[in-house]
Amino acid sequence: MNYETLIIRYGEIALKGKNKKSFYDTLYDRVKEQLKGLSALTIKKHFDHIEVQLNGLDYRTVADRIKHVFGIQSIRAAIIVDNELTSLQEGSLKVVKDIEAEVKTFKISARRKNKKYPMNSKELNHALGSYVLQNTENITVDVHHPDVNIQVEVLEESTRIYGKVIKGAGGLPVGSAGKVMLMLSGGIDSPVAAYMMMKRGATIEAIHFHSPPYTNDRAKQKVIDLAATLKKFGGRLKLHVVPFTNAQIAIRDSMPDNYRMTIMRRMMLRIAERLAIKYDALAIATGESLGQVASQTLESMNTINEVTNFPVLRPLVSTDKVDIIDIAKKIGTYDISIRPYEDCCTLFLPRAPKTKPKREQANRFEKSLAIEALIEEALAGVETIDIGKEAEAIEDLL
Ligand code: ATP
Ligand code: MG
């Protein structure tokens, strides 16, 4: 069956006190963005919830688009009936029948916003509950621990009866926390890191280092596809593709084998910082997880981090690989990440990278590297791709 309206409720935003309005406005923008192109809908912003009137569209289609929007606690589908008792009874029955196969027990919770309504909540619970019981076979009432709580909200002119509940994505709306430059490789971890940052409200722009002809277009396409998948959590995003071949060649040819990886990372971070400054980001984020590989020991992080005083956020620092993989599967990036194209780092990796690199050593070696020139050259060749722009342009035409 279909419903008439979706009621979107927020979670943590409710705790924001004086700042609540700006968080809520941002959430509203994100919801509208995801529903762009569905012109049949009417979207209304109420004091404590957003309502999406479906006007005939399937609630599942609409809910599928917004269930990824951070800041949402729950999306509840409701039917709307007039305030006659018989309509409330029929409506409650209809909603219970829709979910009857999934539950064994139910309860009705009526609330009257219209205090002039001739029955109070208790009387309504009873009248509706017993009507549903008489007209169903496999379901009973449990007022304490029901499998489903059917909420009935009597408003001035009409009544909402809530059925299906879709769990929201939680977190805070993207755009409520400022911008982060996220280093996006083609691997499993960094897309998950992007998701985690967006979940806390950060707007992200992605940076990808690639090294043609050592890395090919399919490796780049993989990163574009990852970014496109991330778009459903936070709307359009930019991907800056940085040409990194010459920097890598210079590092390979003039830096000691066991420090190459450390120095390559330092170069990446320097370039990321420049892009962060250019595009007004306040932090850099990576998919690093403590101890996962040689470049992710504390010694490595310490030595690599030296080149920037921007915060380097590592949302996965304490997450196990198996758990990262679970999230990657859940958010739809895993299958893209495991496509077998090499990224720039694997190609130039030394046989035995130093697991405990020292700042002093790295600084000493780098004296013979044309750091500034290499950075300038890479920045001059950055290609910025606006992920999702074309898709949106097509939707606008529909
Ligand atoms: P991932 O799965 O994210 O690639 P990883 O376990 O392979 O991570 P590393 O290769 O050491 O680990 O990379 C650590 C982090 O450095 C990545 O999570 C990412 O944020 C960043 N990074 C690595 N390679 C690139 C790249 N080619 N472009 C942009 N960022 C990169
Ligand atoms: Mg990697």
UniProtKB/TrEMBL annotation:
What's its top-level EC category? transferase
Instruction: Give the matching Gene3D superfamilies.
Output: 3.30.2130.30, HUPs
Q: Name one Pfam family in it.
A: ThiI_fer
Q: Does the keyword Aminoacyl-tRNA synthetase apply?
A: no
Q: Name one GO molecular function term.
A: tRNA-uracil-4 sulfurtransferase activity
Has the keyword Protein biosynthesis been applied to this entry? no
* GO terms under biological process: thiamine biosynthetic process; thiamine diphosphate biosynthetic process; thiazole biosynthetic process; tRNA 4-thiouridine biosynthesis
Tell me its EC number(s), please: 2.8.1.4
Check the record and name the InterPro entries matching this protein.
Answer: Rossmann-like_a/b/a_fold, ThiI_AANH, ThiI_fer, ThiI_N, THUMP_dom, THUMP_ThiI, tRNA_STrfase, tRNA_sulfurtransferase_ThiI
Catalytic activity line of the entry? [ThiS sulfur-carrier protein]-C-terminal Gly-Gly-AMP + S-sulfanyl-L-cysteinyl-[cysteine desulfurase] + AH2 = [ThiS sulfur-carrier protein]-C-terminal-Gly-aminoethanethioate + L-cysteinyl-[cysteine desulfurase] + A + AMP + 2 H(+); [ThiI sulfur-carrier protein]-S-sulfanyl-L-cysteine + a uridine in tRNA + 2 reduced [2Fe-2S]-[ferredoxin] + ATP + H(+) = [ThiI sulfur-carrier protein]-L-cysteine + a 4-thiouridine in tRNA + 2 oxidized [2Fe-2S]-[ferredoxin] + AMP + diphosphate
Q: In which pathway does it act?
A: Cofactor biosynthesis; thiamine diphosphate biosynthesis
Q: Which UniProt keywords apply?
A: ATP-binding, Cytoplasm, Nucleotide-binding, RNA-binding, Thiamine biosynthesis, Transferase, tRNA-binding
Q: Which domain of life is it from?
A: Bacteria
Q: Where does ATP bind?
A: M183, L184, H208, F209, R265, G287, Q296
Could you tell me where this protein is found in the cell?
Cytoplasm
Instruction: Report domain THUMP positions.
Output: 60-165
- HAMAP family, A to Z: ThiI (MF_00021)
Which family, according to the similarity comment?
A: Belongs to the ThiI family.
General function of this protein: Catalyzes the ATP-dependent transfer of a sulfur to tRNA to produce 4-thiouridine in position 8 of tRNAs, which functions as a near-UV photosensor. Also catalyzes the transfer of sulfur to the sulfur carrier protein ThiS, forming ThiS-thiocarboxylate. This is a step in the synthesis of thiazole, in the thiamine biosynthesis pathway. The sulfur is donated as persulfide by IscS.
Entry protein name = Probable tRNA sulfurtransferase
The major lineage groups are: Bacteria, Bacillati, Bacillota, Bacilli, Bacillales
